[in-house]
What does this fold into?
Amino acid sequence: MSSAGLRGPWLADLIQAIGDSALVSLQPGLEDREYILKSFGGRLIDGRLVDGMIPIVSYMAPLPGEDIPTPGIAYWIPPGSTGPFSGPEEIVKPLVTILRQGGFPARISRDVRRDSLVPSAILTVIITALENSDWSFQKLAEGSELKLASQAILEVLQAICRKREVKTPAFVSLIAQPLFFRSLLSLSRWIVPFDFETYLRVHFTKVQDQMHESMKEYSQLASDYSIPTPTLSKLMAQSKAKLSAKLPTN
It folds into this structure.
């Protein structure tokens, strides 16, 4: 369920249905946790809400142009990746144990919401640039969008670190460079065992509303802290222009 899909009338029915059960949230939005708690009208306290991150890639196979023997759900666990979960120990420990028994690389984290903000923001900004580049790795690597995204990442992370009341990590200035992402795009062709370019287009077109809402949240967060975001604003404006150009006309 995407962050945008979370905000629907069905959530009230789910709240009624789960009773006293714990709820695990995997949504990456800045305000998703607060929205869930508010939707429960105070009947769900932090003691029954678990936060988590998704460390795997999955999709309905085959992807366009993919040749596989049997259609179904394909998944890939990147080497060394783990899925963190945080919340009440009496809930998180058995949850992580069960997931590990099933082959899911889960681990206990002190605070998933805090730890996930930076990687989620970096991914969202880069994917927006990729969308602006017509979902082409080559266009992204060779065009101006990657440079825009690299600068926008610095603006977004400055706002996020202000929210977390921490200093911006030193490594951010190193990874938020066009060369870093060009290297990742090149390496992905050798590391990922499927057409990663096509997967990103299929998946993030499906959750496009979540991506765009997250970009708006980052922009608003920066505005709340009076942090200038000229590059982020330009990236978002180009995204909006591209989407408008694709809308059918009467």
User: Anything to note?
Assistant: The mean pLDDT is 88. The longest strand covers residues 57-61. The first helix runs from residue 3 to 6.
